[in-house]
Amino acid sequence: MLPGVVVKAYNGYYYVRSDDEKTMVSCSLRGRFKKERFSLLVGDEVRYSLLGSEKGVIEEILPRRTMLSRPMVANVDQVILNFAAANPDINPVLVDRFLIIAELSELEIILCINKVDLADQAALAVLIERYSSIGYPVLSLSAKNGIGIEDLRARLQDRITVFAGPSGTGKSTLLNAIEPGLSLATGQVSEKIGRGRHTTRFAELMPLAQGGYVVDTPGFSLTEFVDIDERGLMYCFRDLVPWIPQCRFNSCIHYKEPQCAVKEAVREGKIHPERYESYLAVLTELKENKKGFRL
Ligand code: GDP
Ligand code: ZN
């Protein structure tokens, strides 16, 4: 049997790519999987046997490492949150909101700030410091001038990556700089398709020549509804997490409670006040709408 990764699912067929051989085989699924109603996903690692040169049967499905629900893809390793230094201007409040959903996915997160050719250098340095001090890797990029592209390329190698971030920030341009000919569906296009009635869009994995894959559909978009409760929310702020156990009350949501270690850390400058404001803003939205908030 041969090892491969499902890169595309279409009409009951699975397109399986062997990373070593760089071949693509269209496979059907062994009957027993159908009986078990096992839903095979793009990103799943499988073993298959060949029937002829380009057809095969999937015999075995390996355990999933991760699963992302929007888009539905197995084994994604990391999410890249891409923003633009300008045009459209990066807005830390929006960065914080994207970070909440990215944290919920439990995947590794990399922050990218593209279009640094348009940036005010001092303002950029402040932003980079804010997020790297929380523990996020931050890459400064310019798809236009080739800045940081090698760095980004290295981060994508041998991993499955989903790109997210507001549209117009240069996600497709960056990917084309990494791998000419590869083009990520832009935020706008995929949002439009997502709302269509008949066009359920299935994500595909796009192989990179250097090894690794990029999901062709941007992750969560600005239309996203985020299903989360108050306790879940606080753990999406990495910079709040270390202080939470020191609050006086176990039930503390770091809002109006006395002896709150989180608020104390904000006062002492150990948590950035705007990060805490982002937390409070979403917390307030959760109180109004018990089921979640809109990105
Ligand atoms: P997406 O919606 O995130 O995929 O964004 P696009 O890749 O479609 O890019 C949006 C616009 O930004 C296009 O006009 C690009 O040419 C432009 N753009 C992308 N990267 C850069 C960059 O590094 N610098 C500048 N100045 N413009 C860029
Ligand atoms: Zn507290």
Number of helices: 9
Reading the helices and strands in chain order gives: EEEHEEEEEHEHEHEHHEEEHHHE
The span between the termini is 44 Å
Average pLDDT number: 91
Binned, the helix content reads 25-40%
- Rg over alpha carbons: 21 Å
Shape descriptor reads globular
Instruction: Indicate the proportion of strand residues.
Output: 25-35%
Which stretches are low in confidence, meaning pLDDT under 50 for 5 or more residues running? 187-200
Which ligands appear in the coordinates? guanosine-5'-diphosphate, zinc ion
Q: Structural class from helices and strands?
A: alpha/beta
Biggest sheet, strands in spatial order? 10-9-8-11-13-12
**How many DSSP E strands?**
15
Largest sheet: 6 strands, mixed
Provide structural commentary.
The protein has 295 residues and is an alpha/beta fold. It is built from nine helices and 15 strands. It has helices at residues 31-35, 92-104, 121-134, 149-156, 171-178, 187-195, 230-234, 261-267, 273-288, and strands at residues 2-10, 13-18, 23-29, 45-51, 55-61, 67-68, 73-74, 78-84, 108-114, 138-140, 160-164, 205-207, 213-215, 225-227, 292-294. The strands form four sheets. Strands 10-9-8-11-13-12 form a six-stranded mixed beta sheet, with helices on both faces. Helix 3 (121-134) links the parallel strand 9 (108-114) and strand 10. Helix 2 packs across helix 9 (273-288). The longest helix has 16 residues, at 273-288. It starts with a strand and ends with a strand. Mean pLDDT is 91; it is low at 187-200. The structure holds guanosine-5'-diphosphate and zinc ion. Zinc ion binds next to helix 8.
